[in-house]
Amino acid sequence: MSGTDPTRAQPVLRVRRVSMYYGGLRALHEVDLEARAGEVLGLVGDNGAGKSTLLKIIAGVQRPTSGEIVLDGVPRRFEKPMDAVQAGISTVYQDLALAMQRTVVANFFLGRERCVDGWLGRRLGWLDHRSMTETTKRELARLHTRIPNVHAICKELSGGQRQALAIARAAAWCRRVLLLDEPTSALGVEQQAEVLELIARIRDQGVAVVLVSHQMPDVMKVCDRVTVLRLGEVVTTLERDELTAENLVGHITGAQLAREER
Amino acid sequence: MSTPRLRAPVPSIDASEDRARRAPAQSAFAWVREHWIFGVLVVIVLAFSIDSSHFLSQANWLNTSSAATEVMLLAVGQTFVIVSGGIDLSVGASLGLSGMCGAWVMEHFFSHAGVPTGAPVAVTAIGFAVTLLVGAAVGLVNGVLIAQYDIPPFVVTLGTLGICTGLADLISNGQEITVLPLAIGNLGNDNLGGWVPVIVIATALITVAAGLVLARTRFGALTYTIGDNREAAVRAGVADRRHLRRIYVLSGALAGVAAMTVMARLAAASPTSGSDDELNAIAAVVIGGASLFGGRGTIAGAVIGTLIISVLLTGLIIINVPSFWQLVAVGAVLIAAVYVDQLGTGRRLAVRRGS
Q1: What is the pTM of this model?
Q2: Which of B22, B228, B230, B291 to mutate to test the interface with A (most CBs of A within 10 A)?
Q3: What is the pLDDT of residues B291-314, one digit of tens each?
Q4: Using CA atoms, how far apart are residues A80 and A73, in angstroms rounded to an integer?
Q5: Of B4, B225, B296, which has the smallest distance from its Cβ to A197's Cβ?
Q6: Whole-number Å distance between alpha carbons of B259 and B198
Q7: What is the predicted ipTM?
Q8: Phi and psi at residue B113, in whole multiples of 5°?
Q9: Which of A97, A100, A221 sits opposite B6 (nearest CB)?
């Protein structure tokens, strides 16, 4: 199993003693976690547990009150989301950030349009449609996504296809860490399965995937380890063989803790 | 690379089969929906041609095509603005103001006792440069207020519409300026081979260039992306504010160019030039299939929209219908165009559902 394979288990991303306070409100308190290459780390917790805040801090959207984000052993300070992207951390938010009236290719290269070589490309920004189309086809095929036509308008895609496009795009540009916020919550059963397969494939390419999710069955299917947050603190990190629904729910709600104390 | 652990037993949908299943009927319908407005233009032209032999005459062609340059140039700039999700109501007033500024410079510095002085070409070049710069400056004001200060485009450009209209009147107390080098009037009424006015050629070149920029370059791609989903553009690291500013500068500069064609056509500058043009330009862009919600629209569509508006104007006059009916006709075409565009796109239902 990838989670116990020592060659793949280097922590790419380390969150060290991260706290976040909004005035007197404590959103996160001394949170530690590790995401390793070739592994899916689940991040679960009840509403208000601090999952989204933590995700935003890793993605560079918010700056923590204290603590640090360490990427490949180097502490990083992200002033804005692009800093995190450039450091190799890509994020897929729930809203997917797709341009619905544009094609699959245009969305795949959104904000990173490729221009032709030479004067025309440098001076006029002449787009290299052929090259972008080929790259998009290749990347989507590599991840076995079921998007039949890369020239289709995004609006015409199904919810699962849109999710797959957003994830495949993030995966194509991310070098180290892929953050996914509730990628399966708005999907039907079949589409959920497809997205989970996609996540597994990206994991197998050596990316550290961090999956924020409410869907316990999904978490159990795809995660190699799961860190549980409750009221802004890390309750526990469960290894693959400890992942049972009872265990997860127990830790999320705090019932497990009470049981152990007894 | 190891195989994924997950292998859900879901039958794969074959890509080509999926496309083939829904393609023929849908794509034919989509094609008609995309191009029907061109058919409307053809029908209008044919109807006028059958009704009056004057319609397809050389004189009418020269007249119609020259007059159309004004709205065409404004519609080109407006296309960029509307595709980016904005609106520029100031273009007509900006045309009036920039023309008056250019003409004022030419009259003030290069005339004596009501007669133009100096080398005509040089004076014209200076006057036109001023015209272009004033138009671009109005666009820059719009762009800065919209992009940097986040004031809604409708409000900003409604404000500059008023400001420019007032300033244009202030320059010469609401009077026209007619003391211009003769070269300007000659330029506006010159043509190639008796059929193609010089200003039409200039407008066509600019329009084609703008069409290529919008459809084929990074600048165009960013314009669509910002209009479609600005948040997504920002997250992808797009300098959205700088891009929006450039778009409004472009729109203003094109209003300046439009002011040149008007000045050349009439051999004069009037503070009322361009009034109501913004509405025609917006109508042209929307008739051509652009969405006021942003993210959709083409220069080709704006060309067809402009031609429909221009042809309706001159055609109605030629068949002796009072030109007031032009406003009615354009308004009706505008509403019909948007309605037909919504058919089958799901927009209608989406709007009704409030999503």
Answers
A1: 0.87
A2: B228
A3: 999 999 999 999 999 999 999 888
A4: 20
A5: B4
A6: 15
A7: 0.85
A8: 50, 45
A9: A221
